[in-house]
Amino acid sequence: MGAVMFRQFQSGGGQFQPPDQAAAPRPYHELYDETQAPRAHYAAMWEHIERTGRSLLDAKTREAHLALQTEGVTFTVYSDRDSGIERVWPFDILPRIIPAAEWATLEAGLKQRVRALNLFLNDIYHHQRILKDGVLPPELIYGSKDFRCEIMDIHPPHDIYTHISGVDLIRDEAGRYLVLEDNLRTPSGVSYMIENRIVERRVLPELFTCYRVRRVEHYPARLLAALRHLSPRDEEGATIVLLTPGIYNAAYYEHSFLAREMGVELAEGRDLVCKNDRVFLKTTHGLRQVDVIYRRIDDDYLDPEVFRSDSVLGVPGLIRAWRAGHVALVNAPGNGIADDKAVYAYVPEMIRYYLGESPILASVPTYQMTDPQDRAYVLDNLAKMVVKAVAQSGGHGMLMGPSSTAAQRDEMARLILDDPRGYIAQPVVQLSHHLCYLDGELGSRHLDLRPFVIYGREIEVVPGGLTRVAMGEGSLVVNSSQGGGSKDTWILAD
């Protein structure tokens, strides 16, 4: 199929026009190459789109939305309170496809990164060799609110801190994958990855016959095996609890989904009690000792004896029980220092220091606002920068320089000068494009990719991930909390 056919999709009046070739810089397009023809691994999908036409795509889009609505697959949009914040998960039916060889490189790079970050956490909460050897400046660590001195010298089971990681990847204009963020605290989105696949198989079963797509539905079973591996008592008979803040949390759908799929108890802090440095679940048959807690509560609220004393979400005595080795906590408290946005810039050095290897995946260049030269350069070029608050996530506390106003830039400059450690800056990377079917039309939107990594007996990367899509034309904001959507992510078998 040639470039001409690719440009001539038309059904019911809708026509897809590729981006203007003269535009610069031009984002990398996942689906078509420089000649505007579909890449080889997308040819079968594009042929299917041409055969079905817009009317059938409309029907399948409605079917997908109805399936998600019926199953109660929702998310929270904090940026649109006027029209209600609870929404059906927005899903684009055209999948993102990644060839096996491309995925093999990503998989190796993700395993390398998670292994190095885990070694860093083990080091920083024990001997701190990386600071003594001058690889990281000590003030970078001690100046972060996410460095938890309260957990110094605790030995988690098997020395694993990074049990579950959701590493955000983007592609630059050259098509090179870059790590944007390491999410090592309570990463979310895996339930949507699975639901995307379930819905995609329901509405586009015929397309799966054209590809050998690796499974993602086994994630709960793989996670359960990793949790059992951490049990201080018998693995098979381990009592595992998913600790949730409750029904009003934005990610509660995911909490209940994972607990149900793994067959473990979904509990709130009030359902647990600590006695003799052990944690027990309150049941109708009395107290049952808990071996592993998959916690979806932030550090600050986890144990009022150690962190915030006013927390009613956590469990008093939980850290004492963890320190005593009577319960495993997933992910480990204190992980936030490893995905601090300022520490992020040093991950390539961590890989070299701990593993003696060159990084497989590159990071986005990052300017430290604590460095006078970096700070001066960024303040002079705010209109070209993305500025992020190191203590916030989900797209909050961020300045998108190219789309900002002079007043917003002035305010950000003031914030940076008041608290240099609280901000970092990065050049704007034109996130890659992918074809989407939205509102009855084909058009390109920016996207990223969040693969999920499980660290149990070994490090395993789930062959897929959550592809997040900026639903607005030209927007670079893919976070679901800011109105972004998603695609199913297909990793092809060899």
Mean pLDDT: 90
The helix tally amounts to 13
Q: Describe the largest sheet.
A: 5 strands, mixed
Total beta-strand segments: 25
Strand order of the largest sheet: 5-25-24-21-20
Q: Assign an overall shape.
A: globular
Helicity level: 25-40%
Written account of the structure:
- With 494 residues, the protein is of the alpha+beta class.
- Helix content is 29%, strand content 23%.
- It is built from 13 helices and 25 strands.
- It has a 5-stranded mixed sheet with strand order 5-25-24-21-20.
- The protein is globular and about 65 Å long.
- Mean pLDDT is 90; it is low at 1-24.
Features:
23% strand; 494 residues; alpha+beta; 13 helices; 29% helix; disordered N terminus; 25 strands; Dna Ligase, domain 1
Summary, kept brief:
Among the domains are: 8-98 and 432-491, no CATH class; 365-427, Dna Ligase, domain 1, CATH 3.30.1490. It contains 13 helices and 25 strands. The protein has helices spanning 3-7, 43-70, 100-124, 129-132, 138-142, 190-203, 205-208, 219-229, 252-262, 318-323, 347-355, 372-380, 406-418, and strands at 10-11, 14-15, 74-76, 86-88, 91-98, 164-171, 177-183, 240-243, 265-267, 272-275, 278-283, 286-289, 292-295, 328-330, 362-363, 367-368, 385-389, 398-400, 423-427, 433-438, 441-450, 452-455, 459-461, 466-469, 485-491.
